[in-house]
Model the fold of this input.
Amino acid sequence: MNPIPPELFLWEEALPGGCHWSGVLRRGNALRLTDLSGRANVSALFYNAEEKLERYNMPDTLKAQHTAHLTTGHALYSDMGHVLCSVINDSCGWHDPLCGVSNAELVKAKYGEATYQTHRNAMHRNGRDGLLVELGKWGLGKRDVVPNVNFFSKVVADEAGRLQFDMANSYPGATIDLRFEMNVLVVLSAALHPLDPRPDYAPGDVMLTAWKAGAPGADDVCRNACAENQRGFYQTEILYR
Done:
């Protein structure tokens, strides 16, 4: 993990396991997610903060970069072909962009029922409802939920094509750094991954840290990861000229 220079630090906030958060990250700023327990999952959605009809597009992101996972060097594309943010550092090496988000029915069937009325703040939370709560704060709703990223989670297919959740992918202190190439509305839920096989309901806590990262240079690892990214960064940068 690269230390953040104190003069570039913006803010830091804890995101308890199962809870949710949203906010705008400005172009040139970065957000570090830190897995505090080794079993965190962060379901994330991204929207152009200035025109929210433009949002993260999973198929284009994966197709353009010929990948089925996200790590250092990858860019997260919008449905307009712009780079919303890019992964500038990653200690895990794999983040799941395919398997979606947990919902109330799944969590109840897997872990039992624990409502606010019976368990207060120890209630069982699910990712979909958490994302919807945050989207509602920005005038968005169910129709704006698109396929999400699951940071810190790894899912692979076995020889028979069955999806397997890798419980050893993350660890306490694991980090991923996202640099924002546009002004982006970020929506997060720290609820459990839908394929997490562990029988206990214990979503991991996450630390959010923001700082001034600056604009990517000509030698940037994300820009130069592939020809598609070079075009994507150019198309994004001309929006701000």
Summary: Helices lie at 58-65, 104-111, 116-119, 127-136, 227-237. The first helix runs from residue 58 to 65. The chain is about 15% helix and 30% strand.
